[in-house]
Amino acid sequence: MSLDWIAARLPQRIPLVGDTVRLEPIDPRTDSGPLLAAARETDGGEVLFRFLPYGPFAGLEDFTPWLEQCASSQDPLFVAIVDGETGAPQGMASFMRMAPEHGVIEVGHIWFAPSLQRSRQATEAIYLMARYAFDDLGYRRLEWKCDARNERSRRAAERFGFTFEGVFRQHLVVKGRNRDTAWFSILDGEWPAIRASFEAWLAAGNFDADGRQRRSLAAFREARR
């Protein structure tokens, strides 16, 4: 069966702006210090970078050259996750493994400062990336992959509406250890309902005066099934 669609476009180095967070191109001149501080917010980044192929970083002398490489990379295409209230970069993410001819793209290299984890800003960052991939660039499939041992990342993927597809055994060697990789995806046909759930959850009325959610993202998604 032939598909009546046009190949997707590559993401560009442009800001993606939400109500509580912005995704901006990496600028090592201004981002190195704040991002390193965010990464080392609690334990020096030991837990944060446990399942990533880099880090933790001892200091700016090794973090800045790595960030410069990130800033010049085309695939992955990295962004800084900037808190909309403070203006401080509080994490990173990327678009990666781009195959516009097939309409497939992945979000990865995702890390949030501990203070940003499980927050409205963190959720909106993923929403902005997904919306850009599907609505603006025309992708058919958005992927999320992580170390199969990374239970936090697996729970996050499912919370955001990604469907678990299985585990690729002995997929990679990361930091000298075997990595089995858990695969998740959202398809373009699933995106409208997932987008509506994101938007309902992110609405100001879903949060009380202390910033606590009134209904969970999963509850909004379940209500639309």
Précis, in short:
This protein has 225 residues and is α+β, with helices and mostly antiparallel strands. The protein has six helices and eight strands; from the N terminus they run ββααβββαβαββαα.
Description:
With 225 residues, the chain is of the alpha+beta class. Helix content is 31%, strand content 28%. The chain has one domain (16-223): Aminopeptidase, CATH 3.40.630. It has helices at 28-39, 60-72, 120-136, 151-159, 191-202, 217-223, and strands at 16-17, 21-25, 77-83, 89-99, 104-112, 141-147, 163-174, 177-187. Strand 3 (77-83) and strand 4 form a beta hairpin. Helix 1 packs across helix 2. The mean pLDDT is 95.
Question: What's the topology here?
Answer:
Blueprint: E1 16-17, E2 21-25, H1 28-39, H2 60-72, E3 77-83, E4 89-99, E5 104-112, H3 120-136, E6 141-147, H4 151-159, E7 163-174, E8 177-187, H5 191-202, H6 217-223
Parallel strand pairs: 5-6
Antiparallel strand pairs: 1-2, 2-3, 3-4, 4-5, 6-8, 7-8
The average pLDDT is 95
Element order, helices and strands?
A: EEHHEEEHEHEEHH
Q: Give the helix/strand class.
A: alpha+beta
Q: pLDDT below 50 for ≥5 consecutive residues: which ranges? A: none
The CATH class name reads Alpha Beta
- Strand order across the biggest sheet? 1-2-3-4-5-6-8-7
Helix content: 25-40%
Which second-level CATH architecture applies?
3-Layer(aba) Sandwich
Name the CATH homologous superfamily: Gcn5-related N-acetyltransferase (GNAT)
Q: List the total number of helices.
A: 6
Number of strands: 8
Taken together, the total number of domains comes to 1
Largest beta-sheet details: 8 strands, mixed
Strand content: 25-35%
Looking at the structure, what is the overall shape?
globular
CATH topology type: Aminopeptidase
Distance between the termini: 28 Å
